[in-house]
Amino acid sequence: MKILITTEWYSPVINGVVTSIVNLKKELEKLGHEVRVLTLSDEAKSYVKDDVTYISSLGVGKIYPGARVTLFKNYKYLQQLIDWRPDVIHSQCEFSTFRLAKHLAKCLRIPIIHTYHTVYEDYTHYFSPNQKWGKAMVAIFSRKVLKNATYVIAPTEKVSNLLQDYGVKQPIKVIPTGIDLSSYQQFKTDQTRNTIRKQLNIPEQDNLLIFVGRLAKEKNLEEILSYFSQIDNKNMSLLIVGDGPQRQHLEKYAKKLNIENKVIFTGMVPPKDIPSYYRTADVFVSASNSETQGLTYIEALASGLPALCRKDPCLESVVENGVNGWLFETFREFEHYMKNIFEEQTVYKELSANAEKTAYDNYSSVAFAKNIEDTYYDAISLYNHPKKDIVYFNHSGINQ
Questions:
Q1: Domains present along the chain, CATH in parentheses
Q2: What is the pLDDT of residues 173-199, one digit of tens each?
Q3: What is the pLDDT of residue 146?
Q4: Alpha carbons 206 and 261: distance in angstroms, whole number
Q5: Nearest to residue 280, comparing CAs of 187, 360, 186, 353?
Q6: Which H/E stretch holds residue 81?
Q7: Is 207 helix (H, G, I), strand (E, B) or coil?
Q8: How far apart are CA 395 and CA 41, in angstroms?
Q9: Please, which pLDDT band fits residue 396 given cuts at 50, 70 and 90?
């Protein structure tokens, strides 16, 4: 099968969507499929590198940090994909590249599968001063986009229920995003742990909490910093791995709380090094409510870290209270669960073992790719009708 994946972001950009796509592409190729990627270039120039087509784009960071758009004038590169003749398109973003996916699908008479990664109503502060109006706009936008898909893939039941509330009529399949977990087994030595702690001036005896992700408003890191400042943290440090628009604000906030000596901001870390940072820590923490699934939660569990996270529907099947971590709603719960985690070494070891088991049993990239492959075949079967001639672009941009 020939599969075209369309996405607004791709390597070397680092985020959960890109991680998901990279893992999916690799596993689909292991299954014997041809996979190409259509994405946006980070400059006003289109080009092809290996099996990735980069379409020229413009930055529109005022709408959302890192956002880009294309004006869709790259017919030569789109024609190359048409000539390749994919069997199915798997779109991963709802904006410029979805528009390209829709045109290509129409030309080739093939189905679009769409994965809905982002709960946009959690990001309305970027484009609407009114939360209610922002949510209504998201519902209308989602219905309009997803009506073009044969299947919609939701990473969790939370997202599936949300899309149904929006009035989306397309069939929705819940398929948890898979992760290549092999690298998280390679950093289990004390040497790795001690080396990074020494580099970051973290005392060996400290219990170390870690957050990994983009430093943005929707991640709600102020709450983690506030809670951390209120507990007895003499023998505890907090490691924040990642970068983003809120980094400077968060550093100032940590200073205001008088915890700047116990909170370490690493900035951006290369993806290949992330597993070793997890292994340096003892507990994964997050207060985000903006996740659709949260790949960093699964990475942390795979690294043997119990998770202490704000309660959220997307985590109900990921973090089980007292099994591999806890979900909190208040500071008192955060403090209580933190004490439980570190109270006895045997308790911690059991939580750690269960964390690894949860990740490897339920969220491997191999199982994910097989479920996605089945969905492609279902979509092609549903879409299967006598093929008409392929539609080509002329240079004026009018289909012929």
A1: 2-179+364-383 (3.40.50.2000), 182-362 (3.40.50.2000)
A2: 999 888 888 888 765 667 778 899 999
A3: 96
A4: 13
A5: 187
A6: helix 75-84
A7: strand
A8: 21
A9: very low
